[in-house]
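Encode chain A's predicted structure.
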Amino acid sequence: MEERVRIPFLSEDDEGKWLEAVCAFQESPVALVFTHPYAPLGGDMDNNVVVKLSRYFSGKGFNTIRFNFRGVGLSDGSGTWTATGEADDVRAVCRFILSSRPHVTKIILVVRPSPWNPLTL
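Encoded structure for chain A:
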């Protein structure tokens, strides 16, 4: 079952902010983190490919989480254009998984391929 969560992250000004996410936690030791296509071109965690992949792997018993990068949807902040902030967002999501699901021993990052997504470069 999917659940909406808020994940804390530190912004450039060291203020606590939040990332919007949807997770489906299971008893698996593996978690898959799904990123979305390039936000300035309309990408978000509700992209049809991201949702289908996340739900498919959740149905196979894996922990899954998809999230909106900073400045997308209900996530605080704004995009960085250089992917430095977005990389920090991925780290914040991984920290959230490890702190809330101590049985998870492996995290697999699934980057939604997009020629405009700086994380795929």
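Strands lie at 3-10, 16-24, 30-34, 63-67, 106-110.
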